[in-house]
Amino acid sequence: AQRVTQPEKLLSVFKGAPVELKCNYSYSGSPELFWYVQYSRQRLQLLLRHISRESIKGFTADLNKGETSFHLKKPFAQEEDSAMYYCALSKSSASKIIFGSGTRLSIRP
Amino acid sequence: ETGVTQSPTHLIKTRGQQVTLRCSSQSGHNTVSWYQQALGQGPQFIFQYYREEENGRGNFPPRFSGLQFPNYSSELNVNALELDDSALYLCASSEDRATSIEQFFGPGTRLTVL
Fold first, then answer.
1. Over the stretch B88-110, which tens digit does the pLDDT of each residue have?
2. Of A9, A51, A96, the CB nearest to B100
C-alpha cells in the first residue's frame, strides 16, 4: 500500500534549536518525495522535493531508501518556520500526491 | 501570472443536497487535481483531469464527479451529501501530467454539511 506516515502531530522547539520533522513512506517503486508547507492563512505550497537536493529556507531533506524515510531538518529554527508541514509522495510531481497527516511545527521565542 | 483560484470560499449544505465547487487553473496549466482535506488530516486525492479527461481517481465513491472545460478550469460535483463530506476541498493545477512539474494549490473551499 502507498502510504506516508508522520508520527508527530505537533513539534515544539525553541528558536535557534535544531528541527527534525520525521517522515516514513511505503511505496512499491521509486516515488518522488516532497515536503509541503502551509503557513497561517496561506495556501499549501511546495517547500522542497528530493530530486532537487536543494536547501530551501535553511531546510534540507535526505531520502533514505533503505529506511524509507525522508526527514526534514533545519539546524537553527526561526520563529517564521512555525507552520503545518506535510510530507508527500507521488509517481511524478504532476501525478496524484499522497500526503501524510501533517506535523504542526511551533517555534517558541 | 494568475494563481489558482477557487469558488466559493465556503458554503453550508444539508445532508442529501448536491454541491458544485469551481477551480480556475493557473495560466498555462492543463492539468487539475482535486483533494479533500478533512479536519486534522492531510489532503486526500479525489481525481485528476488532463485536457478535459479524467486521468486517475482516488478512493472516492461515484457521487464525487468532475469536469474540466476547454479553458482548463474545473468543477467538482458531489451528490447526496453526507456529514462526512464536510472538509476543505483543494484544487491544484500543473503544466503537464507527464513531466516532473510542480502542482500549485488554490486556497480551498470549506464545505460544511449539516
1. 999 999 887 555 568 899 999 99
2. A51
